[in-house]
Amino acid sequence: MSLVLVEHADGVATDVSLQALALAIGLGGETHALLIGPGGAEAAQGIPAAVAHVAEHEALGEFAPDAWAAIICSLADRIGAAAIVAPGSGHATDSMARAAVRLGEPLAANCTAVTPGDPLLLTRVRWGGSLLEEARLHAGRALLTVAPHAVAPVAPGRPGSIEPFTPDLAAADLVVRVRERVAPPAGGLALADAKVVVTGGRGVGSAEGFAVVEELAGLLGGAVGCSRAVTMSGWRPHTDQVGQTGNKIAPDIYIACGVSGATQHIAGCKGAKRILAVNTDPEAPIMSIADYAVVGDLHEVLPAISAELRKRRT
Amino acid sequence: MKVLVCVKRVPMTGGRIVLTGDEQAIETKHLGFAISPHEECGVEAAVRLWEHHGGDTVVLTLGPADAEEQLRDAMAIGIARGIHLVTTGEEWDPEATAAAIVEAITADEAVSGPFDLIFFGNESADSGGFQVGLRVAHALRRPCATGLKSVTVDHGLARCEQETGGGRDVYELPLPAVVTVLEGLNLPRYPSVPGRMRAVRKPLETTTPERPASRLERARLVVPAGDARQAEVLGRGPDAATAVVDLLEQIGVAS
Q: Is pLDDT of B89 > 90?
């Protein structure tokens, strides 16, 4: 039997949680769900599990990862779960790693596939998705997080039963908890939501060189992104960075200018519906990732595109 | 203050990942190496804390003999001394890595007292296990916050900021504590030539821990099948503008 940690927002399970549930179902046996915090009871109604356990406690209003880990461990023990599965989101991964060390078990993070057995066989993500690892998990209890958007989600459905419970929480498990929320540092249009992103890489040459990138992004109502080379040179803030250690985005179109296409950068933009590369080098690695290309100097090409856009609008 | 930063040596993979013939590792013979990006910011943070508060700073790695390069890089920007847990180059799984690090930390703290703050990268660029820092914190019985974009120390507390949704969640950890950080925490400085020269002479302690059996045991690595895409060339130079705007109009983003 598997226990799946289901995250939820506004009374609805998150997509990545429904993906994790799908992978857990693939392990065979009964699936139970665990929902923690306000809104859990409402979200539980859409979880097609044998039992949806809903943890409610006045101290669970804000995220507290050690408390979540304690709840995961005690429920897993109580129901005799052989596997504990969670989405590979920030909070869930944090809670699962803490649960793993408490249970004395390994944690396999960002799995894309599992084959039940002893040992469990799994495939997991390395290098932000640019590489996969097939591995054997030698554990008394399998703890897995599921790589986001690698597995199709289950459709919402009603659980066999919903069981609210009030966990015992130790003060020590509430030391690490969210105390307040603050605004993020100022930035342009959120990269995560933009339908159009125009990114500049090392080929832009300088902070000032980004003027042509900003101009085009502005005309298209899009956001400006940059590569890690740009951030490390101090030309743009890290909040603009697209890549494995920056933002991972999925715009309708990603226009990559003067970007060579390192695997760690592609890890951030491969979700884009279309990629247009502008580069002087027709052999640059980005050319085998992109859908469309312009071979040329972005300092000439981008102003020409901007001029053509303006021309057609008059 | 006494501050520790734990780092991992990772290859700089470039445009394509190529595996060794036995599919057990990335072929690295033509690749350079660096400190994994998230903890590179941890090194910078540790140096800034020392600039502000004085005290002792240590950089630690579990890695092959060549990983000394990364320790000297950290020392070149200001870390005072290093601890190298030398391996044969085989990968250690997260549990084994954490256990070896805990042993080294405990030994160092027995000599010169506890680390006020220990920095880890949230996850390494290569294996992405997301757990070593948390395992070490648990063993040391210290509070830990993860995925941090800001860490400031004031009056025995670490104020930590983590990005979620459209804002940042704030945690406050009483020291001694452990934090796992993300790139964007700060902009790391480049080492200067004098810094590199000083680094060569800074103290480095080495041990050779024994690698236990892996409970998360690699069978093989696989490069995901690409689409074997060939980009459609819309044109060359500024003359391509017409074709590009045609495409943008077709997609519906041009107006």
A: no
* Token code pair at residue A189: 């249009």
B99 touches chain A (CB under 8 A): no
Contact A90 B147 (CB under 8 A): yes
What are the DSSP E strand ranges found in chain A? Answer: 2-5, 8-9, 12-13, 31-36, 51-55, 83-87, 107-115, 120-126, 131-137, 142-146, 161-165, 180-182, 196-200, 223-226, 253-257, 274-279, 292-295
pLDDT tens figures, B39-83: 999 999 999 999 999 999 999 999 999 999 999 999 999 999 999
SS3 A172: helix
Q: What digits encode the pLDDT tens for the residues A102-127?
A: 999 999 999 999 999 989 999 999 99
Q: Is B143 at the interface with chain A, CB within 8 A? A: yes
Q: Which one of A16, A126, A241, A283 would you mutate to disrupt binding with B, by most B Cβ within 10 Å of its Cβ? A: A126
Mutate which of B27, B123, B229, B248 to disrupt the A interface (most A C-beta within 10 Å)?
A: B248
Per-residue pLDDT at A187 exceeds 70: no
Q: With 60 as the cut, is the pLDDT of residue A188 above it?
A: no
Say which amino acid occupies A129.
G
**What CA–CA distance (Å, rounded) separates B253 from A90?**
32
Sign of CA pseudo-dihedral B194, B200, B201, B202:
positive
CA separation for the pair A25, A4 (Å, rounded) = 9
Mean pLDDT of A215-228: 96
Structure tokens belonging to residue B54: 């004085």
Is residue B154 less than 8 Å (CB to CB) from chain A?
Answer: no
Rounded CA separation A87/A6 (Å): 8
CB–CB of A1/A75 below 8 Å? Answer: no
Chain A residues within an 8 Å CB radius of B174:
175
Using CB atoms, which residue from A126, A184, A264 is nearest to B163? A184
pLDDT at position B222: 97
Q: What's the mean pLDDT in A68-86?
A: 98
Chain A nearest C-alpha distance from B135 (Å) = 6
What is the tens place of the pLDDT at every residue in A249-308? 999 999 999 999 999 999 999 999 999 999 999 999 999 999 999 999 999 999 999 999
Distance from CA of B108 to the nearest CA of A (A): 23
Residue of A nearest to B242 (CA): A308
Rounded Cα distance, B66 and A290, in Å: 36
ipTM score over 0.85, yes or no = yes
